[in-house]
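Encode chain A's predicted structure.
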Amino acid sequence: MSWIQENRFAAGLGGITAVAAAGLIAWAVSAGNGYTKAKEEFDTTAQEVDKMVKGPVFPNDENLSEKEKAVKDYKESVSKLEQAFDKFRAPTPANIEPGDFNDAVKKALEAATKAITDAKGEVPADFFIGFEAYKDAPARKEATGILSYELEAISNLFASLAASGPAKVLNVTRPLLEEEEGKVFDGKGKSYRALPIEISFNGKEDVLRKFLSSLDDSGKFYYVIRSVRVVNEKLKAPTAADGQFKTEEAGAEGAAAAPAADPFGGAAAGGFVLPGEGDAAAPAAPDAAAPAPAPEAAAPAAGGSGVILQEVLGAEKINVFLRIDIIQFLDAKA
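Encoded structure for chain A:
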């Protein structure tokens, strides 16, 4: 008897293993060939794309001329856009002594406070136009130049707000600039710099419209509104109970005024008359006395308001939050 006959299980397991191993080897060789082919196709395509990107316009003088014209037109449009903003372009002022800057902040604060209060508005108790850090401490001298530019722009901003007539300034927040933290601003590759400030105020709807319009009228500073949020002061809609009716006063002799005629009471009641109703009405008795003419309504007393219903719509105020960027355009050459 052969070994295979005596060890059928081991022989069968060995045969299955050999077949499986051969299959795995064949699959690995096939997969390796597919990967190699796909890699070669990818490399070829990548080389073609790179060649097209780096190469000149497809060999045609007409295409080259059109591309050169498009580039020229683009440069001209960019140049015109830069010229349009030249009036807002201003260099950073020279640094000044910290004490002088603090004095300038106090003068700007007094001017802003006076302008708002003169317009019947209110300012918070801790109002400092965003420069609270310098109430009792001097600014870094190396930061006073850009801070002077920002201070002038913020002063102009509050003058415009005061002219719009807000009821109350709620809050002012000004993030610190890099120079204030001892860092150096890197303007490389930048055409402008944003100096943000956040302002919240309360007032009527036309105050917001006037203030936003005034931002476009500034001839020296360029303002960009980054975000705005408007919330009604009264979050609930008015109800009938909000309207207060004026009670009718008694006559000079203390008699109550006669009730108004029912508008649907017919001709006899002095109301609407339907077609044919007047002809069908029974004639009055010959001896019946003619009704006395109704007394004329008494004129309102001198000095009276004459208002019969309290206004509940149209007088609501709104709370406004604005994040505004003061844009400093940098040197075009830089």
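DSSP finds seven helices and four strands in the chain.
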